[in-house]
Amino acid sequence: MKFVHRLAYYLFGLLLGGMFLVFFFQKKKTEFCYMPNCRVLKDLRSKPISYSKEAEAKFNEKWVTIEDVKNCLEHGDVDFDNSNKPYENGKLYIIEGKNTKNEDITVEMVNYSERVMLKDIKKQ
C-alpha cells in the first residue's frame, strides 16, 4: 500500500476518534484543568467557604460582594510568589481579580483540608 493511502487511512481514523472523544466528553461535562492556576481555583471552589471578621467588614462597606469573590475564584489569577504559604494549619492563597465595577481586587483565602476561609479582600 502506498504511503499516501496509509496516511489517508490514518488521518480518517484520527478524525473519527477525535469526533468520538469530543462527543463523549461533552456529555460528561468535563473540563481541562491541569494547569496550576486552574487546579488551585477548582480546589478552593469545591470546599465550603467561611468568612473572617475582616472579610465581613469589607462586605458591609458595600464596595465588594460575595459574587465578586466567586467571580475571582472562577476567573482570577493566583499569585504563586506570595501563595501556598503555611497559615494556621492551612495554606494562604492570594488571588487577583476584578469586582463588578471592574476594579482590581486581591482576595486572600486560607485553604484548610475540609473548608476554605476568606481572610481578607483588598483594593489594589
Describe the structure.
The protein has about 120 residues and is of the alpha+beta class. The protein folds into 2 domains: about 1-30; about 30-124, no CATH class. Helices cover about 45% and strands about 25% of the residues. It contains 4 helices and 6 strands, in the order H-H-E-H-H-E-E-E-E-E. Strands 1, 2, 3, 4, 5 and 6 form a 6-stranded mixed beta sheet that branches.
Features:
6-stranded mixed β-sheet; DUF4258 domain-containing protein; 4 helices; 124 residues; membrane; alpha+beta; DUF4258
Question: How would you briefly describe this protein structure?
Answer:
Keywords: Membrane, Transmembrane, Transmembrane helix. With 124 residues, this protein is an alpha+beta fold. It has 4 helices and 6 strands; from the N terminus they run ααβααβββββ.
Walk me through the topology.
Blueprint: H1 3-28, H2 36-45, E1 49-51, H3 53-60, H4 66-75, E2 77-78, E3 85-87, E4 90-98, E5 104-111, E6 116-123
Parallel strand pairs: 1-6
Antiparallel strand pairs: 2-4, 3-4, 4-5, 5-6
Helix pairs in contact: 2-4
State the distance separating the first and last CA atoms: 65 Å
Q: Helix count?
A: 4
Structural class: alpha+beta
Q: Pick out the low-confidence regions.
A: none
Percent helix range: 40-55%
CA-atom Rg in angstroms: 21 Å
Mean pLDDT: 88
Q: In the residues, how many domains can be counted?
A: 2
From the spread of the alpha carbons, the general shape counts as: elongated
Beta-strand percentage?
Answer: 25-35%
Number of strands: 6
Largest beta-sheet characterization: 6 strands, mixed
Order of helices and strands: HHEHHEEEEE
